[in-house]
Design a protein that fits this description.
There is one protein chain. The chain has 190 residues and is mainly alpha-helical. Helix content is 53%, strand content 0%.
Length: 190
């Protein structure tokens, strides 16, 4: 008899439980049981245990699910440095001033227009460079994440750049296009 057949039969016969303590998963027949506070932990675990469960070590879990093998040919990982910190620094150094502006810390405002340079060069440039570095060493997912966020920061900076006059269409007075920054239409669209 194979191991699979033995396991199946043991599961069907509930051999891992006592005869007067069946494993009942269908509570619709009215003769089932419920786990409650009056039951000790050993009895509760015995009632909900299944024969098909396995346990793995935390190290194996991390190796399988959190750090899967990435088959990359060549020695680029040994040649280049890790580009991830570059992209993360770009993200943090552009998000921090924007957060302060949007929360109005110490009188900040203007929808973050004062940080346009940080959005272009920290958020956009560093994140795109970090994403391209991830692409070179074969990390597809970080490449997509970092270049997508880099493109967001470049678009965000361009929206706040006076040259593009993105807020001018929302200004109630065409002679003063900067008034468009404070309108509800621009804020909602932005």
């Amino acid at each position: 008899m194979s191991d699979t057949t033995r396991t199946y039969e043991a599961t069907q016969q509930n051999n891992n439980l006592t005869a007067h303590d069946p494993l009942e998963k269908d509570f619709s027949h009215g003769n089932g049981f419920h786990l409650d506070g009056n039951m000790d932990s050993d009895q509760a675990l015995r009632r909900i245990r299944t024969a098909g469960s396995i346990s793995i070590s935390p190290e194996l879990f991390e190796k399988i699910y959190l750090s899967p093998q990435n088959k990359v040919s060549g020695d680029l990982r040994k040649t280049f440095g890790n580009p991830t910190p570059l992209a993360l620094v770009g993200f943090l150094l552009s998000l921090s001033p924007l957060s302060c502006d949007l929360m109005g810390w110490r009188g900040a405002g203007g929808s973050g227009a004062a940080g346009t340079g940080a959005y272009y060069f920290f958020g956009g440039l560093l994140m795109v460079l970090g994403g391209v570095g991830e692409f070179i060493i074969g990390n597809t997912f970080p490449f997509v994440v970092f270049t997508s966020f880099g493109a967001f920061w470049l678009g965000f900076a361009a929206t706040l750049q006076p040259l593009y006059n993105a807020w001018g269409a929302y200004s109630p007075n065409p002679a003063e296009p900067a008034l468009g920054l404070t309108t509800v239409g621009f804020q909602s669209s932005f």
